[in-house]
Amino acid sequence: MHIGVKELGILGTNGIVGAGIGLATGAALAAQAQGTDDVAVAYFGDGATNQGVLAEAFNLAAIWNLPVIFVCENNHFAQSATLEEMVAQPDLRRRGEAYGVPSVDVDGMDVEAVSNAAAAAVHRARSGQGPSFIVADTYRYLGHMAGDTEIYRTAEQVEQWKGRDPIARIAKKLLDSNVLDETQLQTIAAAALTAVDAAEEFAKASPYPDVSSAFTQVSEVNR
User: Are 80 and 144 in contact (CB under 8 A)?
Assistant: First the structure.
């Protein structure tokens, strides 16, 4: 959960729901102040839209014209509660519009649709037009966590969503349009699996941090 890679622009995730929203807004402010063409992106779920930081970030990003993209992965469940149970207005796009943030709905199970929406948002940010809000309609096939009973949904619903799997859909489109053939697709799939397996082995073989580093990058106040 706590992943951060400065060299790749990954500022760090954490266990606080929606915390990345504020971090991305701050990073966008830094990019603006430094005059770079960097664009900050915050990903969060539908449950996180009820965190107060989203309203604050929308407002600041809009009035300061910050180069930030807010992406809500609306998978319809905040752990186990449906979006309709949590909000009176389930049209999440309207949240961004209320703060003057250009907002769009997109089929989150369509690779091309998401890519196009993201490209438009990045262009807006880099051309000085400020923030964007993308609401991607998607789904999670597995439980929210290990041991999730998943009593809040049916197996039939899960299978219906699997029928819209984005990888399968883009693969079929590439085959039908003769961009790739079956052998090329299998090669890509095998390469992806090899990369994931290699990353897992690297992680398992890596040593634990030395105990002397436990208090590095921690302020004196928190010691």
Answer: yes
Question: Which are the contacts of 200, defined by CB distance < 8 A and separation ≥ 6?
Answer: none
Distances (CA, A) of 140 to 42, 47, 118, 162: 19, 14, 21, 9
Inter-CA distances, 172 with 67, 77, 117, 182, Å: 35, 28, 21, 10
Confirm if 79 and 120 have CB atoms less than 8 A apart: no
- Tell me which residue of 62, 63, 39 sits closest to 123, measured CA to CA: 39
- What is the C-alpha to C-alpha distance for residues 88 and 209, in angstroms, rounded to an integer? 47
Amino acid identity, position 170: I
Q: Report how far residue 57's alpha carbon sits from residue 24's, in angstroms, rounded to the nearest whole number.
A: 9
Can you tell me whether residue 155 is helix, strand or coil?
A: helix
Render each residue's pLDDT in the chain as its tens digit; 223 residues: 678 888 898 988 888 899 999 999 999 999 999 999 999 999 999 999 999 999 999 999 999 999 999 999 999 999 899 999 999 999 999 999 999 999 999 999 999 999 999 999 999 999 999 999 999 999 999 999 889 999 999 999 999 999 999 999 999 999 999 999 999 999 999 999 999 999 999 999 999 988 988 888 765 554 4
pTM of the model: 0.90
Residues 185, 181, 166, 161, CA torsion sign:
negative
